[in-house]
Amino acid sequence: MRWMAGLFMALVIAGTVSVHSQQREPSPEGVASTDVGGQWIDITYGRPILRGRTGIFGSGADYGTKVNDGAPVWRAGANTSTRLKTPVPLEIGGKRVAPGEYVMLIALKSPKDWTFILTSQSWVPDFNQDNKRDLYGAYNYTPANDVTRAPMNVEGLPFAIDQLTWGFTDVTPAGGAMRIWWDKTMATVPFKIVK
Q1: What is the distance between the alpha carbons of residues 100 and 157, in angstroms, rounded to a whole number?
Q2: Which of 20, 102, 177, 179 is the most buried (most CB within 10 A)?
Q3: Is the pLDDT of residue 128 over 90?
Q4: Which regions of 54-145 does DSSP assign to beta strands (E)?
Q5: Domain coordinates of the chain in residue numbers?
Q6: Could you tell me the end-to-end alpha-carbon distance of the chain, in angstroms, rounded to an integer?
């Protein structure tokens, strides 16, 4: 009987060690969604965590270079490209956006000067250094494929958001806003539903 109790304890300990030793993805995928007239608009993105870092966007001449990681603009998330999928036509930055899937990027010029970019450039889910055409994150970004650009309203927060989050706010049948929160920053770009 003792050996069964010992075996049971060994299995419990082994199972606990196994569970605790499993690695979680460092920047898990997130999805923000909103329902507009029975149709879903989705943002799919990687969710990096601050992990104790402060001033994530940098300052001065180095502003944005930490998160851009060598790319010309920011992928507005982590890992693969951040994507917007819409089944309805939208208006962003005064331009019509046809139904479809697009990559979302942000040009970080200064703490108050961010530009939202929606591009039709193709993207890939895995990095390949030999691929010089498709987006992975923001690598290989080409402005010629931009569908629209729009200034973002950038605000400071009195607290830090640990894990990057995209979301929809103030949504009505006429439109709403897409927001990104991370560290002590929130940036917003409005959109309209085109009838």
Answers
A1: 33
A2: 102
A3: no
A4: 82-86, 90-92, 95-97, 100-110, 113-119
A5: 26-193
A6: 74
